[in-house]
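Troubleshooting entry. Yesterday's outputs looked truncated, so today I'm pasting the complete records for two proteins to confirm everything comes through intact. If either block looks cut off, that's the bug. Protein one:
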Amino acid sequence: MSELFPRKLVMGFGFSLVLTVTALSVYFLDMSFAVGLTILLATALVQAAVQLIGFMHVGESEDKVPIYLNIYYGIAIALVTIFGTLLILIWDM
């Protein structure tokens, strides 16, 4: 019966909850800007890794190249969007 129980998924869900509570604690504990931003960025990166590895099963298939290319493409689009928004709205270009 234990081989039917989705142990990895439950552990990933629990770890996601811990990361979410950690991120919420930044708001409720009224931390300084630098400390809060550092904690939020760290928990966001770890949360993304947990989601990709634990729930989207990245790395379990035989052909890993398309999966990682899609991840790099998504990161590139996100960075272009962020820096494009900063250029237009903040730096008045």
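Protein two, checking that the full record survives here as well:
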Amino acid sequence: MILDQPIKRWFINKKGQDSNFKSFLKSISWRIVGTLDTMVISYFVTGELMMAISIGSIEVITKIALYYLHERAWEAATKLEKDEPTEKFA
């Protein structure tokens, strides 16, 4: 595919790690799924559609930020140090 390599550069940095942009897009897509879930559960609990939408719209913003920070923390925690060997031992 012609656009394959340029698009991959958006998602993986020069070190072969997930880019900040990829983490951001993952956080957005996950929040869409999570917010829909929150709205459905809120509707079943309250029985009110407007209340469910209100709850979902409030939590979407806070959880995008929390997921992004969580993702970056995992990336930092799992990266190899300069002096750390890269070969695998049995």
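Both blocks look complete. Sanity check on protein two: The mean pLDDT is 81.
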